[in-house]
Structure formats: structure tokens, C-alpha cells
Amino acid sequence: MFFWQDPQFGDKMITLMAALILVLQIIMVAQHWLVTIIRVFAAQSFLLACIAATIAYFNDAPHIYAVAVLTLLLKAIILPVVLTRLLARVDIRREVEPFINMPISIIISGMLTLMAYVVAESFQRPDEAAGAASLGHNTLAVAISLFLIGFFMMTNRRKALTQVLALLSLENGVFLAAISLTYGVPLVVELGIFFDLLIAVLVLAILVYRIRATFDSMDVSRLSRLRG
Amino acid sequence: MILVALLLAPLLASGLTGLLRGRRAMEAIHLVSAATMFGLSVELAAQVLREGGVSWGDGFLHADHFSALVAVLTAFVYLVSAPYAVGYFRHDVAGHAFEQNGAGPPAEKKLLQYYVLAPLFGFSMFLVVLANNLGVMWVAVEGTTLASIFLVTFYGRPTSLEAAWKYAMIGSVGLSMALFGTILTYYSAYQVSGVETLSALNWSTLANSAAQFDKNVMQLAFILVLLGYGTKAGLAPMHTWKPDAYGEAPVPAAVLMAAAMLNCAIYALARFYVLAVHCLGPSFPSRLLILFGLLSMAVAVPFILVQRSHRRLLAYSSIDHGGIMVLGLGFGGALGALGMLLHMTFHSITKPLLFFCSGNAQQHLGTDSLKKNPGGLIHSLPVSAPMFLLAALAVTGTPPFSLFQSEFTILRAGFAGRHTGAAILFVAFLVAIFCGFFFHIAHLVLGPANGRPRGEDSRWKSYPVLGLAFVVIVLGFWLPAPLFALVEGAARVLEVRP
After folding, report:
1. Structural domain harbouring A132
2. Which residues of A fall within a CB distance of 8 Å from B142?
3. Which pick of A42, A102, B143, B433 has the fewest CB atoms within 10 Å?
4. Highest-confidence range of A184-193, B29-38, B97-106, B360-369, by mean pLDDT?
5. A183 close contact with B: CB closer than 8 A
6. Touching check for A131 and chain B: CB below 8 Å?
7. In this complex, do A182 and B308 lie within 8 Å of one another by their Cβ atoms?
8. The total number of structural domains that make up chain B
9. Is B229 part of any domain?
10. Is B13 within the bounds of a domain?
11. Is A96 at the interface with chain B, CB within 8 A?
């Protein structure tokens, strides 16, 4: 048996890629430059598409290939291009200092990852050595970490565009959970989710642009006139 | 077929509006489509009452009593908001409300924006209640957010951008939690059935097999879904977008969000609640719902008592009512579900009246501030102002209005379910909210005349108020038998047998 037919090898590849995705997420937390954050997000989405393709290959689930291709097209190519162009139009390159500084942010991200592993642990059942659950274990923990770190990043950053990227990486976490736990949700639902995501990013891009034009800044901590 | 027709009608209306673009044509399409949707939803309810359930496309779309009830309520809110929207926007166009500092997009373009987006908003709400598949339901709920963001930014003020940003971000994070919860639910179903088909996420399938789901997974899934759809329903502490969005959106859009979209979010939550109860037993999900319900009411109290703007006052009232519905659902038993559904019905009929009066007052005074006005609105707005007072009494659950009946039913459910502490808090919050509401609205409406010119300029704006007030008063004394049959059927869907 060749190594590319060995499911063990597939599992290891998936774990490796999931680990890389987590590393990219933490890089995103530590990054000031908006262009770099967009590129890191694109790389993360690319790895996500690779995981989907690997799962499709080792489990003979052809419909997941469609999901992989869609992820690649939408999240790794179209959305980063849209956001990069938006960045050029609003002409802001660097994030101002976040509410919590970078080193502490990274420590917090680490703690969130630990928490995610604890939560994911409760899903592990000893009687199921193989199958979706064992595959799910590591990747599910990574998915929950992506979700938590994305959430933290959203609250920690001031620029509207960074918040959109944090939201997208959080969505990546949900997506990773979907493909690792259940080999993806039914294709119709998946298509609907992709469609919503595309529209959401376009809508948010318009909002970001208008906030920039109106407030002469993309700093959402200035959006504080409505109270009580 | 009726299900497809109900979904196609708003899409068609949106498309036609986009093609024709004339002001008269847009208004006509809006009115006709609203009437059509209401007719279709009533026909759907009649079919559901006759046959017990309507399906289309191998169960892809499915309507039981609960879906039919929420569809009728959505269509009703849409129906009453349509003529009001015509009058409201005509007033805006005449008063040059769209022009910021002399510049801004032409009025026709703004009208086009509303008349195209509102039917799309309606479409997503109908899809929420008609989709059987929980994944498709999620897609539709997200669709309601996307369709309504640009209704919040409608006036293009800096504050509307701020409101829309909060709405979009908080809403999206909430909904990704709901998606996570949906996926975990799917995962637990997947472990039971082992097959991956579209129907595996169908609510009707899941409800039958929910008892065998993995309890750990389902617990986490329910918490995530509660947080997610709770954000959409504006339950505290995820409610912060609500006063901003309701205060900034034009009144017809705010009505759709406060009276119709709230129902859709609660609808989605209730569907998962039933699954969670089947799997985990009633105590865990009920306790969570009671907690969030009481918290929402508690948060609403201080903000209602010291509110400065009557538009935001209504938003806090909506947070309060979302809390009451969730509380009713949490109390459980036969009475809890019934009370919650009655409350949903009466709230969707009373809330638009309150919003219309508030909108008329705002357009008449040029501000929605409660502090800057000298009162005496009753002299310059002889129709809207007294109705504003009536609506305020109705919405705070004063007898003989119908919301009193539903709140009383929920209270009985609380005592019947031995949630005595929660029931007592419920009454305390209701009383506090009544005081705050009545103080503010009475202050605004009553008082000596102060020489303002007479308002009530448009029939389009006053007739919906009068018509709706009539319905609200009648409903206090007489609930039509078919409507009650529908509510009872829906309560059976949600009822939790111990």
C-alpha cells in the first residue's frame, strides 16, 4: 500500500494542516499591517480548502471536492481580492494599537486554544477509536480555537476592516468544524452559506467604505454616539 | 404549491420594482404584493388547519401550525406597514429628509432602495418559517440580516452608519454561533442516522430521532443556538444593536424588524428548543430560557425608565417582549407554549400601532426626543396622539387589551411549573415597565396646547393607525376561532410533555 492510500497518512496531513491554520490565526492576532492580515487569511482559507480536499479523497466523498473548490475560489481568491481593493480605496495600511497590546493578545490566544482543547475533549468517546470522531478530535479543537480567537480579535481591534477579517476567520472555524465533524453539511446548505458569506462581505465592504467616507476614519471606536 | 407562491410573491415584487422604478409604480407594487402575501399566508393557514401540514419538494419546504402562524403574522405586519410606508416616505420626500446638507442621492433612488429591499426582507422571513431544513433556515435568518442592513443606513446619517455597523457585526457573530450550533446538531443526528442526505437536517426528521442524540454535543449545540438566535432576537446581553438599529431605521422598516423579524428569531430558537428538550429533558433548556428571558426584561427596565427618545423606548420594549416570549417558552408545559404563542400573536399586532404613532409623532415634531418636547401632542395630532396612548397601554399589557391575556397565561404557566421566583420577578418587571412607558408617553401626548400647527397631514399615515387600533381593541374582547385554532396547533408543536 502506498502512503497516499493510507488513511493514517491522511489523518496526519489533516492534523498538520489544522495546526498550520491555528498558527496562521495567531499570526493574524499579532499582525499590524492590514495587507498582511488579508494574505494570512487567504493562506488560511487555502489550507482549509486543502483539508476539505484531503477528506474528500480519503473518504470517497466527491461532494466535498465541490466544497473544497468553492472554498478555494471564494475564500482564498475572491474575498481577499475584494478586501485588498477595498483597502486601496480607503487608503489605510496599518492598524492602530489594539485595546490589548500584542504580546498579551498572543498569550490570551494561547489560553483560548487551551480552553478549546478542554471543550473538544468532552466530545471524545473512548469506544470510538476510528471514524469521524477521532478525526474530529484535533480538528474540532482547532476549529473551536479559531472561533474563540476570532471572537477575541473582533473585540480587540479598532479598524472596521480588521473586524471583518476577524469575523471571516471565525467563520473559517465554523467551517472547519463542519467538514471535520460531519464531512460537510448537505451541499444545498453549503451553497447557501457561501452565498450568504459573499453577500455579507460585499455589504460589509460597502459599510466600511461609507464609514471611512463619513467619519474620515475606519476606527470603529469612534462609533460611539448612540447610547442609552 | 402555496408555499412556493408565498416565497415567489416577494421576489417578484422586488424584481418588478427594480424594473419599473417610477414612484407611483413602486408604491402600487408594494401595496399589491403586501395584500397578495397576506392572502397567500391566510390560505396557507387554512390549508394547514384542514390538513395538518403542507409540504413541497420532498419535504424541503414544510409548514405546520407553528410555521403557518408565524407566516401569517409576518404577512400581517408587512400588510399594515405597506400603506404606512407610502405615507411615511411621501412625507420624507416632501420634507427633503434625504438631503444631507443640501446634497445627497435623489429621492427616487432612496425610495427604490426601500421598495426593493423590503420585499427581499419579507422573502427571507418567509423562508425562515417555511424551510424544513435547519441549515436552510440558518441561511434565511442570515438573509434577513443582510436584507435589512441597508434599511438601517437608509438616512445616511453618521449615527445610522454606526447603528448599521453594530447591527451587522453583532448579528454576524451571533449567527456564526447559531451556525456552529446547527452543525453540532447535525453532527449528533449524523451519529444516529449515519446517512448524509439533505433530509438529515430536516426538523421533522430530527424531532423524531432527537431522543437518541449525544447529550454532550446537544447541550453545547443548544447553548450556541440560544446565544446565536438570541442575538438575532435581541435578548440581553446581546441586545445592544437593537435600540440603535430600531431608532435609526425608517419607521416602516423598524416595524418589520421589531414585529416580524423578532418572531422569526424566536421561531428558530423554539425549533431548537424542542429538539433540545427531546434530547436533554426539559430542565436544562428551560432554565437557560428563563434566565435569558428574565435578564432581557431586567435590562429593559432601567433603559425604559430613563429613556430620552421614544423610538429607542420602543426598541427596549421589544427587548422586553422578546424576553417575555422566551420566558413563556421556558416555563414550558401546555400553558407556557400557549402563552408564548398568544403573546407573539398579540405583540405582532400591537407593536406596529405603537411604531406608527411614534413615527407620526417624530415626523410631526421633527425629533424623537422625549426631553425637548413640551408635550400637548394631542392637540396637534388628534388621531395619532390618543392612539399612541392607547397603544402604550396595550403594549404594556393593561387589561382589557389582549397582551394582558397572554402575559397572564405566561404567569399561570410560571406558577404551574413551580417557577415561583421567576414568576414574581416577571410581574415586578412588567409593573416597572408599565410605569416607565406610561410616564413617558403620557408626558409626550397630554398637556396644554402649545400653538403647534395641526399635523395629521396624510391619510396614508393616519388610516393604518385607525385600522390597527380597531383590530387591537377588537382583539381584546374577541379572538377569532380559526386564529385560536392555529395558535393551539402551534402550541402542540412546541408543547413539552414531561
Report:
1. 3-220
2. 196, 200
3. A102
4. B29-38
5. yes
6. no
7. no
8. 1
9. no
10. no
11. no
